[in-house]
Amino acid sequence: MANPLNSRELLVRLLLADDAQARFASREFSRLDKWPEAVRLASLWKVLPTLNRRVAALGADVGDTAQATLHRMTAAGFVRSARSARKGVNALVELRQKGIPAAAFKGLAAIAGLYRTPRDRFIGDVDILIRQEDLNAALVCLEALGFKPDLPGEFPDYVSFMRHSPAFAGNFSVALRDADKCEIDVHWRLGISGQASGTGQLIQRAREAELFGSAIPIVAPADNLILTSHHAFRENLTPDMTLRDVLDIEAWCLQLAAGGELQTALEYVASIGLASPLLAIINIPPVFNSDSAVKPAAELLQRLARKTEARTARQLTNLFVLQVHQGPLNKDLSYLFHPRSLGQIAGGFLNGWSRYRSFMQDMEIKNSGRPLPISGRIRFLVRAFAGLMPAQLRMIRALAKVKGTYQNGS
Q1: How far apart are CA 17 and CA 20, in angstroms?
Q2: Which residue intervals of 32-120 are DSSP H helices?
Q3: Quick check: 166 and 407 in contact, CB under 8 A?
Q4: How far apart are CA 400 and CA 395, in angstroms?
Q5: 215 Cβ partners below 8 Å, 6+ apart?
Q6: Is 209 helix (H, G, I), strand (E, B) or coil?
Q7: How far apart are CA 69 and CA 84, in angstroms?
Q8: How do beta strands 172-177 and 183-189 pair?
Q9: Using the 8-state DSSP alphabet, how is residue 174 labeled?
Q10: Are 21 and 58 a contacting pair, CB within 8 Å?
Q11: For 255, which of 136, 311, 384, 387 is 20 to 30 Å away at the CA?
Q12: Are 187 and 127 in contact (CB under 8 A)?
């Protein structure tokens, strides 16, 4: 007898699978009285709008308690998201007025370029891309709007920490927060093959989109595919943090296909050596739905990818599915399989461990609510490594390879 599906698996089926499997997942949530858990998971995974749309489309009865929770969480998420989006739009307008080239990507770009409203795509922060030479001017401009760096130390020490932290995967950014706790993440360097310091090119290719009555620059759809994929791999392809990226990439592909631009976009991605990470993500929806609308994009990119890239992509898609079934793997595992990651950490130690550790603890507190002692981190890592099966080791190596590709671009 097959093992019953857990709530994680049921939620992914509900959101990604065809109607028949989604209805099965809906019935299982009802039978097991786990709709409140489904809503909680969707909130943690930041996919409440998608859950709302799917529940409505299926006409699913989630029960009074879960329905009330879903309504309350969705309303609160919309308010927070709309407030952040408005401030992001204002920031982009102000940067443009000051003559500072910039463009939105990831969440705000998805709202403006895909969903057209913050009701259908929530954001917790706003990601803005600038040129490295404009960093100081951009920070001054945004500080005038009330946004200040949220750092436990000096800015040069923070830059050194990013340089020596493999968790950033070559990405240089700083979080700015205002009195309302709204956050703008300013990115001036991206660890992406051939484009690590070429943010100006991404901004030049940006397109105009309208949100809240203002025209704002957003990164072009093909570049959004790459940057969203980059974020997913920074988060080790765990569904908890990247299911929303999967949904966004699916939507960008469908928009590109509708505009007759899909092949050109995917050829561009393949030409800069990033076919395997994007293919890994585009392949995820068809795993759960053989008739997925994004399947033609997956087949096209499969033809464009080299055999080694396609093989790596299959391992990475399997890594996502594994984490759907079993939960997130230890985030540090991939560092064991890429020498540069270990070298970065060693460099942080040699260049001032106390400063490095203070920034690491600050990041841990913001991400998980508490710092993790080094001894505990090593103990968890050893335990996680000892429990890996050979197939899982191959998946982790594939993940380390892709993350190394990003870091080698920086």
Answers
A1: 8
A2: 35-44, 48-58, 64-97, 107-110
A3: yes
A4: 9
A5: 208, 209
A6: strand
A7: 22
A8: antiparallel
A9: E
A10: no
A11: 311
A12: yes
Q: 221: burial class by Cβ within 10 Å (0-12, 13-18, 19+)?
A: buried
Q: 352: which residues sit within 8 A by CB, 6+ positions away?
A: 157, 160
Domains annotated for the chain, with CATH where assigned, are 7-62 (no CATH), 77-326 (3.30.460.40)
Decide if 15 contacts 247 (C-beta within 8 A).
yes
User: Do 187 and 175 form a contact (C-beta atoms < 8 A)?
Assistant: no
Write the burial class of residue 95 (CB in 10 Å: 0-12 exposed, 13-18 middle, 19+ buried): buried
DSSP per-residue string spanning 247-311: HHHHHHHHHHHHTT-HHHHHHHHHHTT-HHHHHHHHTHHHHH-TT-TTHHHHHHHHHHS-HHHHH
Could you give the count of Cα atoms lying within 13 Å of 271 in the half-sphere of its Cβ?
A: 9
Q: How far is CA 267 from CA 20, 256, 262, in A?
A: 34, 13, 9
**Burial readout 69-90 (b: 16 or more C-beta within 10 A, e: otherwise):** bbeebbeebbebbbebbbbbbe
- Phi, psi dihedral angles at 8 (to 5 degrees): -60, -50
CA distance 160 to 351: 8
**What DSSP designation does 153 have?**
S
Coil vs helix vs strand at 224: helix
For residue 50 the two structure tokens come to 């998608």
Q: What tokens does 323 get?
A: 């984490």
Q: Cα separation of 263 and 253, whole Å? A: 10
pLDDT average per 10 residues of sequence, the chain (410 residues) = 77 96 96 96 96 95 95 95 97 98 96 93 96 96 95 85 75 93 94 64 94 96 94 92 96 96 96 93 96 96 96 96 92 73 60 67 68 70 77 88 67
* Angstrom distance (rounded) from CA 408 to CA 410: 5
Distance set, CA 142 to CA 3, 89, 135, 217, 218 (Å): 53, 12, 11, 17, 18
**Strand order across the beta sheet in which 126-130 lies:** 148-149, 172-177, 183-189, 126-130, 102-105, 214-218, 207-211
The one-character DSSP state at 328 is P
Identify the burial level of 309 via C-beta atoms within 10 angstroms of its C-beta, where 0-12 means exposed, 13-18 middle and 19 or more buried. buried
Closest CA to 332 of 166, 102, 157: 166
Query: What are the tokens at 111?
Result: 């709202």
